[in-house]
Each structure stands twice: as structure tokens, then as C-alpha cells.
Amino acid sequence: MSEDVKKAVYMQTTGVEAPHRSASPFFLATTAALMDYDVSMVFTVTGTSLLKKGVAESLRIKEGGEGATLDFFIEQAREAGVKFYVCAPSLDLNDCTVDDLIEIEGVVGGTAVNEMAAEADIFVTF
Fold first, then answer.
1. Is pTM beyond 0.90 here?
2. CA pair distance 9, 51, nearest whole angstrom
3. How many domains are contained in the chain?
4. Residue 2 DSSP one-character state
5. What is the β-pairing status of strands 66-69 and 60-62?
6. InterPro entries, alphabetically (predicted)?
7. What is the pLDDT of residues 14-41, one digit of tens each?
């Protein structure tokens, strides 16, 4: 990858317990990817729960069960080239394995997350 390509990392730390906080990271990641950034999203703490199979199709962003579901935002991000990673300890915290999740690029540990942050031009946490 060229050094001219900017990198953006969006870390999602909240999950199904806060649906109103779930769409913005995907939206911003998608926007950055469309601006030709190399974009990764890292899911940790309860953020990993958003990637469990079946969750995104039923999770509505707006209170009251109206509006778009999370899978709309996930698919936009995928189509734009955003890469999804899960922090290893969050799998156990969310009682799941990689097989319980939608397709992701990989599982990362603390060292990898710190390296991603150090190399990023933008690092945003939700």
C-alpha cells in the first residue's frame, strides 16, 4: 500500500445495548472509504455483539422500531471497502466465536490494535 493512502480506524465499543450509537461508525467509515482512505473498523467490548449473525437485520437504529436496520449501514460499508476486525477478548465477553459472527477480515489482539492506531491518520472511538 502506498504511503500516500491515508488510513482511518473506527473502534466500536458499544453494541446492541445502545442501538442509537451503532450506525454512525459505519456511516463515517463508509464516507472515509469513499474518500479513498484505507478504512478498518475494530469491534471490542460489547461492540462485537453488533456482528453476531442475525443481529443487524433486526436491530433498528431509531427508537420505536422505525427507520433503517443496522444491516443497511453494514452493507454500505462493505461495498465501500471497509474492513471489519474483532478484538479477541471481546469474543468471550459476548459469549461467541468467530463462527457466530458475520464475515470479518480477522481477529486482532492488543498489539495489532495499537499498531493500527499508531499507523492511522484518523482514529475514532464510539
1. yes
2. 17
3. 1
4. -
5. antiparallel
6. DsrEFH-like, Sulphur_relay_DsrE/F-like
7. 999 999 999 999 999 999 999 999 999 9
